[in-house]
Amino acid sequence: MNSHSIQARSTIAAAGLLLVALVVGGVALDLAVRYRIQNEVFFAAEQVAARWSAAARNGAVPRPIPTLTDITLVQLVDARGRVVDSSREAAGMRPLSTLRPPADDRLQERTECSGQDRCVMLMANRVSPAADSPVVYAGTAQPSLLATHTLEYVIAAGGVLILVPVAWMTWWAVGRTLRPVERERQFASTTSHELRTPIAGLRARLEEALLYPDDVDPRDTIQGALRATGRLEAIVDDLLLLTRMRGADAAPPELVELGALVTEEVSALGSGVPVRVRAVGDVRVRGSRIQLARVVGNLLSNARRHAVSAVTVSVDSVDGQALVAVTDDGAGVPPADRERVFERFVRLDEARRRDSGGSGLGLAISRDIARAHKGTLRIEDSPVGARFVLMLPLAGTAGAAGEGTVAPRKTAVKPRRNIWPARRPPGRSMSATASGDAWE
Question: Domain Histidine kinase spans what residues (predicted)?
Answer without folding.
Answer: 190-396
